Structure formats: structure tokens, C-alpha cells
Amino acid sequence: MSRLKITILFVTRVPSNSRIVMLLGQLERMNGEAMVRDVETARQVTTKILHLIQTQEKSGKEVMSKGSSGMEVILASLEVSSQTTLEFLCISIVTDLLKRAFLFVSKGGTGILFQILTSASKELPPSEELMLQLHSLLAKVGPKDRKFGVKARLSGALNVTISLIKQNLQNAKLLLPCLQVLRVYSANSVNAISLGKNGVVELMFKIIAPYSKKNTSLLKVALDALGALLKSKTNARRAVDGSHVPALLALYLDWHRNDARHRHMLIRKGLLVCLRNITNIKLGRKAFIEADGMRILYNTSTECLPVRTLDPLINTSSLIMRKCFPKNRLPVPTIKSAFHYQLPHVLPVGPVAQLYSQPPGVDDVVDDSDDNEETEAETDTDNEEDEKNDDIETDLNKLHPTKSPGRPFEELRVYERFFLELSEDFQVRSLSSSSSSARSTRPIIVPTAQALSPKHMATPASQEIWNSIKGQHTQPPASATSRTPGSPVSATRHIQSPLLLGDIATRRVGGGGSDCGSEGAEDEGGEGAVLEVPDTALLLPLHDPDLYVEMVKGTRSVPQYAEVAYPDYFGHVAPTFKEPHLERVYGVQRSKIFQDIERLIHPNDILDKVVYDLDIPSGESLKFNSQFESGNLRKAIQVRKYEYDLVLNSDINSNHYHQWFYLEVSGMRVGTTYRFNIINCEKSNSQFNYGMQVLMYSVQEAISGRPRWVRTGTDICYYKNHFARSSIAAGGQKGKSYFTLTFSTTFSHKDDVCYFAYHYPYTYSTLKMHLAKLEALRTPHIYLRQDVLCETLGGNICPLLTITAMPESNSNDHICQFRNRPLIFLSARVHPGETNASWVMKGTLEFLMGTSPLAASLREAYIFKIVPMLNPDGVINGNHRCSLSGEDLNRQWQNPNPELHPTIYHTKSLLQYLAHIQRAPLVFCDYHGHSRKKNVFMYGCSVKETVWQSNISATSSDLHEDLGYRTLPKILSQIAPAFSMASCSFVVERSKEATARVVVWREIGVQRSYTMESTLCGCDQGKYKGLQIGTRELEEMGAQFCVALLRLKRLTGLRNHQHLLDLESDIIGTQSKVVSPTTYVMEEDEPSFLEAIDYSAESDNEDAEPENEHGNNVHENPDHLDQLSDSCNQT
Ligand SMILES: [Zn+2]
């Protein structure tokens, strides 16, 4: 029987001559044959040891002390002996020492106990006393031993315990420790299945029912064991088949009613856990609904609400109810976008072809989390899970930037026309005369794929250079024809909606002193309603309402919008007050969820009245509108008197990507609180759970001189709801639930027209207006050229800007310096919903065109090539993520299609051209917005940091990498208050291999290739800590980016600008040898807070359930596909 060889000389180990040490020494010497022969002596020694341990605390400590092998000696004698008495004594000793259970486990104690248990069970009848002792001991050891379940099964102990339970149902004294052990057994999924086969589920139901307050500790343990068993689908089905769901509900109700002082909360919780696990299967949910479970749990929870300590019951009930709430499809005819754009051609394998080949009824949601496919783990689940991120690129070949030749140079040569500054010799004209050259404009030829043939290419004559330098915007605003000097401010406060594009009559008010703003109008509009326009010319140098309208007229949208949104018309002046993160009210999510559940329980209270519908025009109640540029709202449904469900429209040619919203509301009552629910959000979490508010714009406020977006809304939270889409509609993934963003607000003006938006809107027409206005900032020292890179699918132009300084003179040296300036390539707004990127870009552009010495130096240092809006069509049509082709343009950089992705195709070609002529940019940066993180930060590309994160073995050559990619973010973290180095990552991910950042790094060979992500929410560090971000901070970020480039110039050792170096104070730590890799965080990195954010009310997601009530389960575990589609804002 002996397997454990005790070779340690106990006495020599511990230099002590205490009594217990001597006794242990004696026992150790007896181990083996001697003990079997001289049982009586062994027994005496053990008794003495036990006595000492029980009477002297010191002795116990000595046995357990570090370096002592007391535990080994005792275990060895346990194992060697077959004498019941002796075992009993040893067990008693061990029990007393078990405060150090991990030591016992690590020395193999569990296995020995199971061995004794199985051999003792063969004696007939087994000694009850011994069984009691053994089970008590196992119950204590079990939770400390991660392999307990496996060891129990392999030793045959499961059956011993089961038969003991069966034979001792009335013997509480023995039953309790047996159930305690069973509870540990059941935590192992393989054990749970095998115990279920042996009738243990039925057995547990016998123990827990009927309601009785006798022996509650036994009941509690039985419920725990049952709860663990029911995690197995087979067992859950057994429970349903045995009609135990109504029984459990009745029992729960009994406890709820009789436990008036809430002393048995754990029993009530145990019952709910059983229900929670049973309802993981479809049959279980069905049985729950049939047994009126929704009403029972809703009513009991409502009664528990006043008692804070009962929160765990409410939370678990809420989870069960949400899981069982029948899944509905969204209340729209199809989840495909309400608008359709006919593509020039549809790739047979592309997403659009797939979308339109879906069968009718594809959106119908069935409860498709099937429980028939019994794929229960036949492997043990108590292994530690390796959390590996398999998105990290591990292919070293792909990690090595290998410049790809791309298109042949013959093809790329046509892009020369966009780089006139690289060949201009400035000899034709003197610099002074050129700056006053004529304002004539010539159409710029659009190099789409078809137009790129040489015959269409204009010769880059110097005339054209100057024409294009002067820009295209020359025409005066059409509506500014019949202006008369300003008249006194009228008292009119009437606002009409919609603001139609056709006839907008304006009257400027306020803001004296600005001569360009003192125009009034009494023109042909005719209706008598004259719009008062706040004069913001001084505050908003780049804004002009009339010019905006002109720009809108040239913008082509798929729905052919004829309206203008007031906020875009009036402009936005950033408020001067602080806008802190909204503090979350305790229990807000729960109360919102309960209100949602009430819809099912009290359906008659629900109005269910469609008040706005893109598919069917109609309307009453609050009036909604979204039919203007960048607008997004598909449908509004009034559910209660002051509560509306809002459905967002999918991106065009797609059936999802809803997140961006921009909508108009009117017809409101003053002082009433309205609740709005956006019910088809898709991401699994949102900054709306962490202090972010929505934006609101009041036209009455604007007319009163405060044209601005302000953060608005209370009771904001974001949670999984009962709407879902089918798995086919979801593209083969599992059917996915939608999420609700809910917020409440009151309106403070009568007859107001208000707008809500996801973030500060920035339309394409706004961009065109800003670009036209930038022309006005040009001085003779600034070289600004605006080209049309190409035309988009929707027929809009994609602007390309070149900004640098004019050469100091036309001397050869100066011309040479001019041409050889390094290039900086910037782009933004490939994702339409990330409007913050446009505000950052606006800050960059304004800074670059500014008059500060820094700006002048910057222009002298670099040539800037900027594509400020990579996805105009998406922006115009209110998309969140895609272009008209229904695709994410930032996943097309590897192989862009010239027809379907023209802006990407031609932007990449520009970069390929530069690579060909050995002028690849020093920095490439694509501006984005991030919806799930705070602060502003960058993603870059580093072989080294990717290798570090992935544990792949790499040769040392891979680890020699210039740390230059870190310089720019490092500088930014020092000068830009919103920027956080800690949030940056330089890991190359597989899912990002077709993004601008990775392709420009890998194929063009730009080491400093970045995505710059700006938060939609706010900051949790630096000067803006605790505040929500506004346009001022975003624009500042764009300006600081420029300043950082100037510092980079110095640090990269390029010549020139010595006079500016004094402005730079601190040294950037790029020379340091070891840089710790930044943390690589795929998901949002928010801390948890009191109310568990619980998105897991789905049967396929039980692992994400809160196991404790303190709710540190903010992190969901979406599957990989989820991550891909959820990573929307990450690049
Ligand atoms: Zn993005």
C-alpha cells in the first residue's frame, strides 16, 4: 500500500527538541512495516500528537512550520496504515491542521483521502464515524484542490458519496458533509454529467422541497450542488422533464413570502441560480414562461427593490427575465438600410451580393440558441484557461515591412500632378505677382480609374498650378445677392422645421462690429418667416451659414436630401463651461431593464405608436426628422406617453453598423422628462456606461446667441435588450442581440427644434465650407493647393490638400530646400460616425494655415499632403462605418478596388507614387475616433512589440528595431493634455492587416505609420481628467499634433529651424535602451463599478455571468467574430 517514501529525517530538519517534534520523529521511524506490526504503539504516539495539537497552539504551528515535514509524516502514516482507528486519529490531526490546506493538497493529501474513502466503503457496513470524518475533511480540502473533481472521479469516490447520501437522507449529521463534498464534485462538468446519469438531480430536488425552515444549512448546500449540476445541459433538461421549473418557482415564492427578515437570502439566491442555469436551454426558457416565471420574478423583484441587501436576488432575477424575454426582431420591415444605392457593379462574393441574396423573412428571429446539439465538454473544465490573443500577428514574414512595388510606375506616373510642389521651379513668375494672380478656376480632372488615361490628363502647366493654388472657391454665395444693411433685431422666435434647402431667408442678429456679418435679408423666400442668424463670424472664422447652404447644394446624397439641419447651418460655438462625465446613478440599468420587462407584463400600457418612419411617412406626438445631411434615424415609436424607442438606419447597402445618430425633435413639452431608447445598438459595451452623454442642440438657444452642442441626458445606460437579428442576417454568426442606449432629458424652450447626436456632427458640406474659408487665411508665404483626388461612388469630390511654405526666394538653394522638405501624409474620417476625427483635422488645418511662428516653421519644415475626408459618401448619408459599397473602407487598403473604393485606391496610389520616387512620407497618420476608450492615443506598428506580445521565437535581428516609431506619440503625451501614452499600442494585429496604418507601414515602408484615436467620451488623465471631450479639445489636439511634428523634426536630426529649438525644453526619451511594451488591450479598459454591467442574458454566454454580486464582470468575452465587428472604432 505504501507508495510514499518518507526519506526526510524529520528530527534533523527542525532543530528543536520540543515534545511534538520527538513524537513525530518516533512516528516517522515507525512508518512502514513497523507500524503495521505495532499498531498499538503507533496509536499511542498519534494520540499524543493529537492531544498536543489540540491543547497547544504552538505544537500545531511547529508541525506546519516552514521546513518541517510534519505534514508528510502524518500523511505517510495515514497511507501506510489500514487500521481504522489510526486513520481516524490521523484524520483528526489533519483536520486540526487544515488551516494550511494548500500544503496538504500539494503533498498529495487529497488522493490519499479518496483512497481511504474507497477502501473503507468496501467494509460492510462502512463506519459511519469514519465516513463523516472523511467527508468533513474532503469538504474542506475540496475547494483548495483544483484537481479535486478529477481525482474524485478517477478514484471512484463519486459513487461512494452518492450511495451514502441515498442511504442517509434522514441522517442530517452525515448528509451535510456528503452534500458539501457533492457540491465540489459537481463543479466539474464531466462529474456533473455522470452524477446526473446516476439520478443525483432528482435526489437533490427531493432534498430541497417542500418548503421548510428545518435544517437550512443542509438546504443551502443541496441548492448549491443542484445549481452546479444544472449547468450541464443534460441535467437542465432532466429538470425540465421532471416538471421542476414550476416547482422551483413555487418554492422561490414560498421563501420570498416567509423569509420576512431576509435571513435566508442565500437559499433564495440558490433557487434563482438553479432557475438561471435551467433557463440556459431553450426548453428551460419555455418552461419558465409557461410557469408564469416572468410575472413571478418581476413581482418578487419589485418587492425586493426597497431593500438594498437583496440586490443579488434582483440582479439574478433580472438576468433570468432578460434571458427568457422572447427575442423579437426589430420593428422595421427589414434591417437592411432604408436606402439603397445601386453600385456600378457588385462583386459576386462581396458583402452586397450576400446581403441582397438573403431569403425573405431572413430577419425573423427564432430562439436559435439550440440545446439539442449536445456538445457538452467531455474534458475536465477545471484547467486553467490560457488567455491567448490570437489576433496578434505571428508570421514573421508579415511582420517585416516589405515594400511592395504596387502598381507599375508607368501607371503611377499620372499622380505626378498631385505633387507639383516637388517639381515647381518658381522661375516663371515672381513670387509677389503670383500671389495676386487671377481667381479663375479650371475644372480639375478627376483621375478615376476610367479617366486616368493619358489623353484625359491635363498638362501641369504653371498656369494651372497657380490657379489651383488659388483654389476653386470663388463664386459668391448665391443667396447673398439682395443684401441690405442690417435692421434691428426683431422679436420673431418662430422656427420652422424643416429648414428647406430651397429658400432660406436669413437675418443676422447680434455680434456688432463684424462688417461681414451685418447683412439682413428680406428676400424672395416669401413666407414671411425670416430666420434670425446669430452672428458668429468672429467666433467661428471658418463658418458661414450662406456658404454652408451653397455647399449643401453641391453635395449629392442617396436620399437626395432637400433639408438642412439647423446646427450645421448656424454652426457650433464650443461652450465655455466644463462638461464633466455624468455620474452614474446606482441601479439605473436595473430600473431601465425593469421598465422594459413591464412592457411584456403589462402590454396594455404600451402605446406602440409609430411616430416617425423613413419607410412610411406619417407623424404626430413628438416630431422626428432625420432627412438632412449626416442624419440618421429610421423610425421612432412612442411606447409610453413620454417614452420613445428609436431605431437607427443601417449603413447603405448593409444591414447593420448602427451607432451614429443625428436627429431632429420638435413638438416637445417644456419641463417634462422624456425617455429615449435607441434600441438597435450593436456594440457590447459603450462609453455611455462610463460618463458619456449624448449631444443636444437647441435652435432657440442658437437664435438667442448660443449656437452650440451641449452634453445632455440623465439616467443614461447601455445594456443588452430583447431584440435580435437572425443568424443568417448576421452573416452566419449566431443570432445577435441588440443593445439599448437609453437617456432621459427635459426641454427648456417652447416651440423649439432640438437635435440629438452621437457626437458633434461634422458634415461633408461643413468640410467644403471650411476648406473654402481656409483659402481666405492664405498669405503670400503660404503654399496651399486644393486638388480633387477623385470622385466618390456617390458623385462627390474627394479633396486633397497640399500645404507648405512658399520658398523664401526663387534662388536655387531655396527652391531646392522647398522641394526636398519631408512629407507628412494625413487623412481622416474614413469612418463616418467618427466625427471627432474631423474636428481634430479641423484643428490641424487651422493651425497649419495660421500665422504663428510655429506654424510658419512647420510649413517651412514639411510638405503636408492631407486627405481630410476619406469617406464623403458615408458622411453625407449618415452611415456609421461604411461607404456606399457597404464595406468598411479601412479594411480595403491591401487591395482597393478603383471603382468601389476610389478614395482608398487613389490615396494608396499617391503613397505608392511617393515610394517610387523615393519620397515616402516621414509620418503617415489616419485620424479616427474610439467609442470604447477615453483619451487620445495612437496605434503604430512595431515588429519588436508584436513579438514581445506574442511569445513567438524570433531571431535577434528582429529585435533590433529603431524606436523612432515611439517618438511622435511620446512627444504628444508631453504636450497634448488629452493624449495618453499608456493607451497607445504598437502591436500588429491580423484583423488589422488591411488598414491604412498596417498597409502603409508594410507596403510603403513608412516606419511612423499611425492611427490616431480620439475618444468620443472624455479623459481620465491629465488636465481634462473627468471631463467630456468637446470640439475645443479636439481642435486643440489637432493643433498639438502639428507642434509635435515640429519637435519630431528636431529629434530626427533634420536640418533647419535651429532658431526654434529654444522653444523645446524637454528631451524625449527615445535614446533609452529598453522601453517596456505598452499594454495590449483589445477591449475597453474601464474599471468596474458598483452596478454589475450585465450583458450576458443570453444562453450562449453563461460564462460572462456575474459569479459574485460585486460585478467585476465588465469585460465580456465576445467571440472572435464579435471582436472583429466590434473593433469598429479601433482603427
Ligand atoms: Zn475608425
UniProtKB/TrEMBL annotation:
Residues 760-1049 form the Peptidase M14 domain. Pfam families: Pepdidase_M14_N (PF18027), Peptidase_M14 (PF00246), TPR_CCP1_N (PF25571). It comes from the Eukaryota. PROSITE patterns: PEPTIDASE_M14. The keyword Chloroplast does not apply. It is an enzyme of class 3 (hydrolase). The active site is at E1013. GO terms for cellular component: cytosol; mitochondrion; nucleus. Residues 1107-1123 have a biased composition (Basic and acidic residues). The keyword Protease applies. Its EC number is 3.4.17.24. This is Cytosolic carboxypeptidase 1. It comes from Astatotilapia calliptera. The lineage of its organism: Eukaryota, Metazoa, Chordata, Craniata, Vertebrata.
